[in-house]
Amino acid sequence: MKAEEMSKRQRAISVAEFFERNRHLLGFDNKRKALLTVVKEAVDNALDACEEAKVLPEISVQIINMENDRFRISIEDNGPGIVKKQIPNIFAKLLYGSKFHTMKQARGQQGIGISAAVLYGQLTTGRPARIWSRTSPKKPAHYYELHINTQQNSPEIIKDEIVEWKKDHGVKIELDIEASYMRGDQSVDSYLKQTAIANPHATIMYTNPRAEQFVFPRASDDLPKEPVEIKPHPYGVEIGVLAKMIKNTQARTLQSFLTSEFSRVGAGTAKEICDKAGLFTSMKPQDMKLPHIEKLIEGIKETKIIAPSTDCIAPIGAELLEKGLRKELPAEFYCAVTRTPSVYRGIPFVVEVALAYGGDQPGDSSAKILRFANRVPLLYQQSSCASTKAVISTNWRSYGLSQSQGSLPQGPLTVVVSLVSVWPPFTSEAKEAIAHYPEIMKEMKLALQDAGRKLGIYVRKKKKIADQQKRVNIFENYIPEVADVLSRITGMGKERIEHNMRSMLEKNKEYIEAHKATVQKVEKRTKEEQIELVSGDDL
Fold first, then answer.
1. Could you check whether 15-216 and 318-454 share the same CATH topology?
2. Stretch (H or E) spanning 371
3. Which of 85, 110, 114, 77 minimizes the C-alpha distance to 95?
């Protein structure tokens, strides 16, 4: 075949066409996972929208079994709604969003998730996505039915009309997809329960395919702190990105470019970078060539620059994380730790850890890990996630638990590991596991050790009390026999010996009761809080 003939067969591929053939990259590996992915993308978007609008989220999730492996998924929120002209692009155009170019924490990033869910529904059932949106009680509700034109990666509007809708403001999306429903650790049920833990300010109402209804009520009326957008930090910029920034800048000099385009770079720091790079501060950015940019990168590396601002991230907080865990997981001991902010590749991040020990959790199995990234549960690829590696590499034997080498600890324990960052380093576009960056691994281990020390105090105290109580019970059972033997040996009255032994026993019991009080105080507080907070399992 000649080159001319081969060239006729070559054409550009749209991003929609690419993901049409490679949907596994987005989390649509199988029917069970597809159900979870569709719900996850819609719920994540709803939570982000409500928080940006400063509205306490109330989200309704309904899944209807239509038989023959077809399900109708309906997710409705009380957020700010979406303006009419943006609805088709948001739901039916891949890589269309508002968060990719912003340096602040958000659940969504690439603008792929919800449009990929629409694409999956279109591929498996042929039915359009149905969207309702209203931005104000004074404005009409808009209803769309949409398909995606995969060749052009653009929306195809099937229906566009104004309808009556009970909501004052919010969005509802309804999709028909091919899927399968099963309960378990990687189910929609588990995802929503974990979402309620990491988002204690949200109320989630859920109706599963068996028509069973669950409510995960909010445990806090305080919205998370709103992240503030920051500029990129010099330490996280690679040579290609720097070249693009220089090409597009409006700055007239290299010094003004550095101070205006980067965070934590003032006039003095910019001059120091230029001096170490051997470049003039007055040099025009448009005159810079690749050798100049390479020198600038070296100058940045050799200059000590203040770590980036952490206003761009909003951790859950130890108190709220523990409260969310108490609400959804009955146990006898809880603790939570929030580390101070750290940095990888110039990107700020915070690691948080919480532990729930005892209760109804099985004591003869491995500990359970709940992993989160920007408050979103990660349910797949646990073994390849940095969170799992950090838990396994922590020495839990030091905290009173049994652990084989290279394994999770054994015992009635749930470990929560949460990462919040402007740009969490996921291992794939499906956002299912966190990459093993050394800086992140180090912070995870330190957080686990902080929480582990608190757990160790409780576990050792409880074990000590149990051992002492066992010895006291044995001693009490044999007092009459021991008193009888001592009476015959010493000639002292049996009643007197027995009385003295019981007096000694009472002192030991008082000592045990004093130590028990500490443990019981923790357990009592736990039970009282669980009575106040209704768990989704109880409804």
1. no
2. strand 368-373
3. 110
pLDDT tens-place string over residues 479-493: 787 777 777 788 788
**HEC letters along 315-355:** CCCHHHHHHHHHHHCCCCEEEEEECCCEEECCEEEEEEEEE
Closest CA to 386 of 335, 349, 333: 349
Tokens of 492: 């002292």
Fold of the 15-216 domain: Heat Shock Protein 90 (3.30.565)
Whole-number Å distance between alpha carbons of 320 and 419: 15
Q: Which residues lie below 8 Å from residue 470, measured CB to CB, with a gap of 6+?
A: none
Tokens for 57?
């989220």
Does domain 318-454 fall under CATH 3.30.230.10? My reply is yes
CATH T-level fold of 234-302: Helicase, Ruva Protein; domain 3 (1.10.8)
DSSP string, 202-230: -EEEEE-TT--EEEE--S-SPPPPPP---
pLDDT (mean) for 145-164: 89
Hey, where are the domains in the chain? Answer: 15-216, 234-302, 318-454, 458-538
| CA dist., res. 332 & res. 326, Å (int) | 9
The pTM of this model reads 0.78
**pLDDT confidence tier of residue 19, bands split at 50, 70 and 90:** low
Which of 9-23, 123-137, 437-451 is predicted with the least confidence, judged by mean pLDDT?
9-23
Higher pLDDT pick, 502 / 96: 502
3-state SS string for 59-110: EEEEEEECCCCEEEEEEECCCCCCCHHHHHHHHHCCCCCCCCCCCCCCCCCC
